[in-house]
């Protein structure tokens, strides 16, 4: 299934500047694999070496955090939208 993935500014150098890309997959893990195939280096920026999502990266499926769903096993349907959101920290 085809889904739309929104790419944050820090990762756009891997997508040739695109802020949105299309990806294929039945679940989030498959979409990440498809993104890696088409945009090498993207997966290592959002996933740990064991394949789990990095702690400082949030993925939203249609505005809902996948951690409150089935995480990387969250199933998708055509026209879903995934947003990659890097966590922001800092301050005093």
Distance between the termini: 44 Å
- How many discrete structural domains? 1
The CATH superfamily turns out to be Beta-grasp domain
Work out the number of β strands.
Answer: 5
Give helix % range: 10-25%
Query: What structural class do helix, strand and pairing data support?
Result: alpha+beta
- Series of secondary-structure elements, N-terminal to C-terminal: EEHHEEE
What's the overall geometry?
Answer: globular
Spans where pLDDT lies below 50 across 5 or more residues: none
**What is the count of helical runs?**
2
The CATH topology name reads Ubiquitin-like (UB roll)
Task: Tell me the CATH architecture.
Answer: Roll
Please characterize this protein's 3D structure.
- This protein has 92 residues and is α+β, with helices and mostly antiparallel strands.
- The chain has one domain (2-86): Ubiquitin-like (UB roll) (Roll).
- The chain has 2 helices and 5 strands.
- It has helices at 28-38, 42-46, and strands at residues 2-6, 20-24, 57-61, 64-65, 81-86.
- The protein has a 5-stranded mixed sheet, with helices on one face.
- Strand 3 (57-61) and strand 4 form a beta hairpin.
- The chain is globular.
- The termini are far apart.
- The mean pLDDT is 95.
């Amino acid at each position: 299934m085809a889904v739309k993935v929104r790419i944050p500014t820090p990762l756009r150098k891997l997508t040739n500047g695109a802020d949105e890309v299309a990806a294929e997959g039945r679940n989030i893990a498959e979409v990440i694999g498809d993104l890696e195939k088409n945009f090498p280096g993207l997966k290592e920026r959002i996933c740990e070496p064991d394949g789990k999502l990095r702690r400082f990266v949030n993925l939203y499926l249609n505005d809902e955090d996948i951690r409150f769903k089935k995480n990387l096993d969250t199933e998708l349907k055509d026209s879903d939208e995934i947003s990659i959101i890097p966590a922001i920290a800092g301050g005093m």
